[in-house]
Specification:
Blueprint: H1 3-18, H2 35-56, H3 60-82, H4 93-102, H5 111-127, H6 135-155, H7 164-171
Helix pairs in contact: 2-3, 2-6, 3-4, 3-5, 3-6, 4-5
């Protein structure tokens, strides 16, 4: 594979986006009509992928990264669903954490700020491979993401729109 192959690959992806020919939407994301439900569906999909990775591989970097993403999507779902915010309002990661913290969704526990502090310090280090996450951190991050997601869904009374439970039951 040479540079021309890379250029061809970039041009292919650019043309798919320019022509809006990105192919069929992922099944689990095909039914959502609202901005909030799209964020919820993305969080559910990321958590589902974490479950698959945990049962089949030791890809701890992906589990940690997807867990961070699922937490942020779960917070964003809540904010878009319960306020006048839109997903496009959250251009910076820290905005989501600051906004969810200010709304008291997690009472006075400081959970969003603590996760944001952890994200700020460790996510980039893991992403750029300064830190190498191990199994226990990957499992812990996934469990944290599952708990945050479940709590946000419960707080928004959105069980009927979350497909995580359906995935758990199908898998069992």
């Amino acid at each position: 594979m040479g540079l021309e192959d890379v250029v061809d690959a970039v041009e292919h992806v650019e043309s798919l986006l320019a022509d809006e020919e990105t192919g069929p939407v992922q099944d689990s994301l095909s039914w959502q009509q609202t901005d909030a439900d799209v964020q919820l569906g993305k969080a559910c999909a990321m958590l589902g992928t974490c479950r698959q990775l945990r049962s089949g591989t030791n890809n701890y970097v992906s589990i940690v990264e997807l867990s961070f993403n699922a937490i942020e999507r779960s917070f964003q779902f809540y904010l878009v669903d319960q306020t006048a915010a839109e997903s496009s309002d959250f251009r910076k990661h820290e905005q989501v954490f600051e906004d969810i913290e200010s709304r008291g969704v997690f009472s006075d526990t400081g959970v969003p700020a603590r996760i944001d502090a952890f994200r700020s310090e460790h996510r980039a280090r893991i992403y750029y491979d300064i830190d190498r996450p191990g199994r226990d951190l990957a499992v812990g991050m996934h469990e944290l993401a599952e708990e945050v997601h479940s709590y946000a869904v419960e707080f928004a009374d959105a069980h009927s729109r979350c497909n995580c439970k359906e995935r758990h039951e199908t898998k069992s």
